[in-house]
Design a protein that fits this description.
Layout (H helix, E strand, L loop, with lengths): L1 H27 L2 H29 L5 H27 L4 H24 L10 H32 L6 H29 L8 H22 L3 H10 L1
Helix pairs in contact: 1-2, 1-7, 2-3, 3-4, 3-5, 4-5, 5-6, 6-7
Length: 240
């Protein structure tokens, strides 16, 4: 039970945040809210449950397993395209080189799942050749980049907050966003470690425990960042 708690927390938090941000983008017509909302919904509320279901079916050699796993990877790739775009528009909107890199990375993500389907398929639990690792690396890079940019802005705004030039809620939001994205990066690292040691990610208690802890941290952090209760906002203001 405890091994699956983090997954439940992450799915619920991503669903709530995704819907909230997409509703906000509908009112403001701003791209970052749409991108981050789409990322949360696609990777947490859609891609993660699909991936879990697909791996259960794969273990039972069900005919639909590979198709579902491919769909789950495609949802995750689309989520990371949205994350790439949102990070670019928030942190480096005037950088043409960054925009070009985002376009290239997005094109590679769109190609990764069809490439894997054409070459190796989706049956391998810990990877499916070069196309799988291309998509895996780009997904990890999307979250690593978001972590670095958010952490950098958090440290910058924290210094401004000390002299009254930054909103403490905004400062805390950057901290929480970097913590949430950084937790996901740790999840990628756990998968790599399991692959290198020949451990099945879905059948190892230590890997599942690490994934559960990461899910709790990521889910709670993104929830407090984008859908915080009023009590938490008062706490942040009083602490500042």
């Amino acid at each position: 039970m405890w091994l699956g708690l983090g997954i439940v927390v992450q799915i619920l938090a991503d669903a709530v945040v995704g819907v909230r941000l997409l509703n906000l983008s509908r009112r403001t017509h701003e791209l970052p809210e749409f991108c981050f909302g789409a990322c949360a919904l696609l990777i947490g509320a859609v891609g993660l449950p699909l991936s879990i279901l697909a791996r259960i079916l794969l273990a039972n050699e069900h005919a639909l397993a590979e198709g579902l796993l491919g769909a789950a990877l495609e949802m995750q790739n689309l989520a990371c395209v949205a994350l790439f775009c949102g990070t670019w528009r928030v942190f480096r909107p005037v950088s043409h080189w960054t925009g070009f890199a985002v376009v290239v990375a997005s094109a590679a993500l769109f190609a990764a799942v069809p490439g894997q389907a054409w070459t190796t398929g989706f049956a391998a639990e810990t990877g499916g050749g070069a196309w799988f690792w291309l998509g895996f690396g780009l997904r990890g890079s999307a979250f690593a980049w978001a972590t670095a940019e958010s952490a950098n802005y958090w440290m910058l705004l924290r210094r401004r907050q000390r002299i009254g030039l930054a909103d403490p809620v905004l400062v805390d939001r950057f901290r929480l966003w970097s913590l949430s994205c950084g937790s996901v990066v740790c999840g990628f690292a756990v998968f790599i470690a399991a692959h290198l040691t020949g451990t099945s990610p879905g059948g190892s208690a230590p890997v599942l425990l690490a994934g559960s802890i990461i899910g709790i941290i990521a889910g709670v952090s993104i929830g407090l960042a984008f859908a915080p209760p009023a009590r938490y906002l008062r706490y942040v203001a009083q602490r500042a």
